[in-house]
């Protein structure tokens, strides 16, 4: 299949396919296109975003079955073969002979690459090593000075995952302020967000923005776009005194404040009604996992607020109301709130 045809056929399943590189399109045509078409026959849509508990279990099952099939003795050897140079050739041969790509993605309607990365995150023992010691932080700074942002190399030297070392370096690379946000910092954050969103909108729809640019008018931004994932490490650099997670949290609080015009949605009778609406709407979704919930739609249940605000309120509700909630599944938590907490709230209201 030629590149243009592959891109055209993939567009049916992946809306943002025009932003994907040619080399990735070639790989997806071989690994994913037939799978996507098969899922379409079954009435199953291709998914993106957070993996569900059901999908995680399917990945675990696929990996365990492949290990049993090939005799490879650990998931780490299978997914991090470069750590075992003496077994590398044998493992690569077994992967080819037993169709690793197809086996690892069985039953999961997502691009193969995302499934593979998720499996690596699940089975990497270096992901679960706790807090960084002072010595590790110094090593991380030294290795970054030597190797730049080659996080794969640095992760091998530190026996930590790629993501872990990249995020930790983001936190410690400069003197970070942990106190209250100043007016200057908040303004820098808002300017940084405005800049990256302006650039994103210009890229997506340059022609319709030309008149706005000529008149030097601020862009109108749809409410939904405010919730989109932003390049937080870039925003962190522009702010200068806060690391990316602080910037994200502050932006969410700014959104909540602006979109609700300062209303105290979770106080008094309004607060009780909001909790009641939230529990009812969650129960109506019949979701088995939090990732199956459309939090953007659900935000209407308690007011014109960002999804992060709704998720935070749900978290507080389950922690304060559901005994032993950590041992319960998402659906069990919702059922408990609906059957036990909802009648109490309605009576109180």
Automatic annotation (TrEMBL):
* Residues of the Myb-like domain: 124-172, 173-255
Provide an example Pfam family for this protein: Myb_DNA-bind_6
* GO biological process: one example: termination of RNA polymerase I transcription
Q: Do you know which PROSITE patterns this protein is assigned to?
A: HTH_MYB, MYB_LIKE
Source organism, top-level taxon: Eukaryota
GO annotation, cellular component aspect: nucleolus
GO MF, one term, reads: chromatin binding
**Gene3D superfamilies, per the entry:** Homeodomain-like
HTH myb-type domain: residues covered:
124-161
* SMART domains for the chain: SANT
Q: What is this protein called?
A: TTF1 factor
């Amino acid at each position: 299949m030629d590149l243009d045809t592959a891109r055209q056929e993939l567009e049916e399943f992946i809306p943002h396919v025009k932003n994907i590189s040619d080399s990735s399109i070639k790989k997806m045509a071989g690994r994913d296109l037939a799978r996507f078409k098969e899922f379409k026959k079954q009435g199953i849509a291709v998914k993106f975003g957070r993996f569900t508990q059901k999908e995680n279990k399917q990945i675990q099952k696929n990996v365990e079955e492949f290990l049993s099939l090939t005799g490879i003795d650990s998931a780490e050897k299978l997914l991090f073969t470069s750590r075992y140079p003496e077994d590398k050739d044998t493992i690569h041969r077994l992967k080819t002979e037993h169709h690793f790509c197809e086996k690892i993605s069985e039953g999961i309607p997502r691009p193969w690459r995302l499934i593979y990365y998720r499996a690596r995150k699940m089975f990497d023992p270096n992901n679960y090593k706790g807090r960084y010691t002072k010595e590790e932080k110094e090593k991380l700074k030294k290795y970054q000075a030597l190797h730049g942002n080659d996080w794969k190399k640095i992760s091998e030297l530190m026996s930590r995952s790629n993501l872990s070392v990249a995020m930790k370096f983001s936190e410690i690379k400069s003197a970070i302020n942990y106190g209250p946000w100043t007016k200057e910092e908040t303004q820098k954050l808002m300017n940084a967000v405005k800049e990256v969103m302006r650039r994103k909108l210009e890229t997506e729809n340059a022609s319709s923005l030309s008149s706005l640019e000529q008149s030097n008018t601020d862009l109108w931004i749809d409410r939904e776009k405010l919730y989109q994932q932003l390049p937080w490490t870039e925003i962190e650099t522009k702010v200068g005194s806060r690391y990316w997670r602080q910037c994200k949290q502050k932006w969410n609080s700014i959104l909540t404040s602006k979109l609700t015009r300062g209303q105290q949605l979770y106080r008094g009778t309004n607060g009780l009604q909001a909790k009641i609406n939230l529990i009812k709407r969650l129960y109506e979704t019949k979701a088995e996992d939090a990732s199956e919930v459309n939090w953007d739609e659900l935000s209407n249940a308690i007011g014109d607020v960002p999804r992060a605000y709704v998720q935070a309120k749900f978290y507080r509700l389950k922690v304060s109301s559901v005994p032993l909630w950590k041992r319960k599944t998402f659906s069990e938590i919702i059922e408990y709130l609906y059957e036990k907490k909802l009648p109490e709230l309605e009576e109180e209201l």
